[in-house]
Amino acid sequence: MIVFNPHHRGLVIAAAVATAIFLVDCNVERNITVSVLYIVAVWIVHATHRRSVVLVAAAVCSVLTPLGWYFSPGDAVWTDAIWNRVLSLLAIWITAALCSRALSLDAQRNASNVLGEHLQQELNSEHTRFTEIQERCQLTIDAALDAVIMINQHSQITEWNKQAECTFGWSREEAMGQSLAELIIPERFRDDHHRGLQRFHQTGIPKIMNQRLEMSAVRRNGEEFPIELSIIVLRCAEGYQYSAFVRDITEHKSTLEELRKRDQQITTLLNSTAEGIYGVDLEGRCTFANNTCARLLGYDTPEELFGANMHQLIHHSRIDGTPYPQSECRIYQAFRSSEGVHVDDEHFWRKDGTSFSVEYWSYPVHVEGALGGSVVTFVDTSDRKRREHLQTKKYEELEDRVALHDQELVAMRDRLELALEGANVGLWDWDAVTDEVYFSKTAKTQLGYDADMAWTHFRDWETRLHPDDYEQAMQCLKKYFQDRGDVYQSTFRLRCENGTYRWILSQGHGEFDESGKPLRLIGVHIDIHEQIENEKILEWLNGELSRTVDALHSSNIDLQQFAYVASHDLQTPLRAIANFAQFLQDDYAGKLDATADDYLQRIVQGAHRMQQLIRDLLGYSRVESRAAPFQPTSLNDAFEDALEMLSSSITETGARVTRDELPTIQADKSQMAQLLTNLIGNAVKYHGDKPPEVHVWAEIGDEFYTLFVQDNGIGISPKHHDRVFEIFRRLHTQTAYPGTGIGLAVCRRIVNRHGGDISVKSQEGKGSTFVFTIPVNNSEVEQFDADNPDAIGIVHDKALGDV
């Protein structure tokens, strides 16, 4: 079943009407006009309410009108009929125009109705939306983290949110309608607040509007605190409305201050380091730098580096002048690989264009998990490079010296091996960790073993120790390891190939680890067998010598007794003989014949010579047997004593005896006088034709006093220089120069007792100079002790040798 809506029904009806009119028009006379009725079809189409359909219908009817006239019967063409057709067409289009206008007006009316309804709906929706926005704004204001305060142009509070209550301590009910200045502005700023509002109302120029400000506010309890304030202004029918957004920045200020202090600490820390430090972002621009960085790079302040591309500024070229692309820069490897980089062989460029060698470290910096750049730390290694260069040069020189030294060591080792082999000294090297021992060929051959015999372990030495020496040798080794001494030394016997034992002196030096554990001991074996045997022989000889000394001691006692007898018993009869011979000569001289007088003269002279000889012998023996202890002795006084004893000889010969200033020494005072008396007396006695001239002087050295006795006498031939100090040794006859030949022997004995030496410088006929020395520190010289048999033995041995 086909269902038509109203629009379709109208079209069908209009089509049916038009068809009917067309059929009628085709069947009537041409002079009869039916086409005017097409306006009915057009009007029916108007019911579709579509202008396009009306126009189409009018066009169709316009076409049907001439067609109907064409098909109508009759041949005449009437003018009236033609005009009727034209009028029909006009009627059709006028009807179409009227219907179209009517449809347009209906459409406008319908559109107005729809628009009105739509506007009403929009108005209702906007009202609802405004209400929601207003509620949402209020909720937003109440939920805001900042205090939101609104005032009118009279500075009266019209809005006060929850945060304002918390911030200032006034409730909404208490704050609404109150003066803002009186409620929260410090008293010192209230006048400024009022003047600012008045100026804005007069000029309309906002001075502090629409910007963030920091100022002070006051709480309900009177506490003044810092706030951050932003004000916006709205002009409305009631006048100006102001909205203020207030934030308590007390904690913010405290945080900023803490951050400032921390930043200052970091800055101080960075500036106190000796290393240059700077940071770069991902594009290589400098974000910070310390003072050392600026100084090393030749800049006055770190701020000169901020924002600069550090690679282009300080790392643009290699040391040879070739470009250094940023893509190859190892500093930026921290960006590319997120790993730290350490480089010690590159150069940075200063502001003045010079370069210096650096060692740098580049480490990536992450900000909230994301790579933000890197921090570079560098040091100037110019001085270190110079030192390293010098060290390298010195090391090379040292290597050359070591190589040369190694060559010398090889040569020395060869010489040492030859020397050790020639000296029959064996070398050993014991590894205390592995217990292995190296023994040289000589260490084996000195005991009669084959040089190629395998001695490789400690037991090879241990098993050859003499049983009586084993315990002592092992204890000596153990003690050395415990004490860690400088030198290991031990004496023992080792078994030879033929089964005998030889004495060995072992010496060496050890190496220890940090804990004191022995690592190595190296040393030598010295064959001291003959030395030990010789020591045994020497020990026997020392025993024999001791027994001989005891015998000599007994003999010296006998000699002392002889000296006593000689000084008393021998001199008494000799003195009687001399006296009686002198009496005979005095009483009978000239009364007997010449022969008797000659015999008497010889008896008297012989007795006197014998007395003088005994006195001289006693004096010689008493040099040590009756010596006095050493004491400070003035040689000037000793010289004067000698002149007094020799005064008659000096006067008789007309001698001239002089001296320089002589020192004071540690000596036997009487023996010093006797020494000078003998030397000066000989100088006075052994003179030539000229009167004797004697001069005495001294020279003071670090260890010895040297004294000189010079004369102008007859001199001594060089071949007799040593003989003159022997006892009883005479160079002249009794007739020429009488004497016993003991005087100079006494001088040498005195000088020797004082630890010195005596000699003579002379040529025959040219005078003599006797030189003797006395130690400066004479307290160290061993003095004679009458009870010391060794000292007595010196007298005995010397006297025996001279005899």
UniProtKB/TrEMBL annotation:
Residues 565-778 form the Histidine kinase domain. It is an enzyme of class 2 (transferase). Residues 133-187, 262-315 form the PAS domain. Keywords: Kinase, Membrane, Phosphoprotein, Transferase, Transmembrane, Transmembrane helix. Residues 211-261, 488-540 form the PAC domain. It catalyses: ATP + protein L-histidine = ADP + protein N-phospho-L-histidine. The keyword Transmembrane applies. The chain crosses the membrane at residues 7-24, 30-46, 53-71, 83-103. Its EC number is 2.7.13.3. GO terms for molecular function: phosphorelay sensor kinase activity. One of its GO terms (biological process) is regulation of DNA-templated transcription. This is histidine kinase. It comes from Rhodopirellula maiorica SM1.
